[in-house]
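Reviewer 2 asked us to include a model.

Predict the structure of this chain.
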Amino acid sequence: MATLGAYRKKHKVTIVGSGNWGSAIAKIVAENTREHPDLFEEEVQMWVYEEELTVPTTSKHYDAGSKFSTQPHKLTRLINHFHENVKYLPGIALPSNLIANPSLENSVQNSSILIFNLPHQFIGGLCDQVRGHILPYARGVSCIKGVSVDSEDVHLFSESIGEKLGIYCGALSGANIANEVAQEKFSETTIAYDPPPMDSRNPSRNPTPKATTPQGGTPSSSQLDLTAINEHRDTRGKTSKVKLIVPPPDLPSIDHNLLKTLFYRPYFHVQVVSDVAGVSLGGALKNIVAIAAGFVAGLGWGDNAKAAVMRVGLLEMVKFGKMFFSNSVHTGTFTEESAGVADLITSCSGGRNYRCAKMSVERKVSIEEVEKEELNGQMLQGLSTAKDVYGFLKKRGKLEEFPLMVGTYRILQGEVNVDKLPDLMGK
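Predicted model (structure tokens):
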């Protein structure tokens, strides 16, 4: 991949989160910062929620005579010593330039690119803790899949992070099973990033907000004072509440090319688009469709039925995006990108929502009972998303516009028998 030119300063990158997916993304990023020293500082910080443990007996690092195997040690020390996250990503070697850091404030210090990868319920508290400790011109990418929905609105995690920290934040999502990515099995992902106009060395013909046109005609790129622009539009097309700080000109521009350089690996292909809402919605709505696909699989109706559910579900995903994010959502995000159709296929083939829905029909028990028995305390995202989307649509009088999503929720609630799903879809 071609380099983007030489700059006096380099980007420092921090991964905020170190679970299964967080560690897999950190591995990719650290590999790439090492390969592109003209753009990035080689060392990558990874914030780790500190805990103590001994090396598991199943680990290749286990040694009955070693203090690491007989006495509890901090997880950060184990990661930095073995270059492996022995708890959350065991058996995967991490680059030596990836540094586990237990201090959130210290890990983000002086980092111009922040990559967020942690459970969504911790976003608020984490942002409160880190506010004031980051560079004012930092930019972010959220790897937190999905959206937050209530009866009032749909909230993108990337925009929640951006508003709380006063930065711009994009999103990464796709058909990405963390262990497979970490094992370097081929996959692809989608990054959604709509560069704010003040970040661009070559501003678009329609910068956001519109630049004032000098007397005498349309301004050229050289006439636009990008340092004076601190506004940008959100995914609804409205002027964002966040007033951004312009990055220094001696830093490489954070644009589609740079993000592809930071995340692309031979085993992890990356497409970069500008549709942040579409990428985020794909990661949430596909879980409802996966539950419906699990229902028909549990009934033993075969691949034709599952294909029908996926087709209707994909259309409803597109319709939802275009209806409520008409200023930014593109149909192609759902029909062409990993974050859309590919993630839907994966989720409807073997994802947790699909599997648990299938087992609930086969066992003739509620999906909540299967969730409790099979997931060791983890929660099915599809259940909460189906409920929240139903409430959101009901308040707007749009229930009839989305028969598959609404029908899936009604089956989950016990209002309708599961074998009536085709009738519900046909309405």
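The chain has 17 helices and twelve strands. The CA atoms of residues 141 and 170 lie 5 Å apart. We have added this to the supplementary material.
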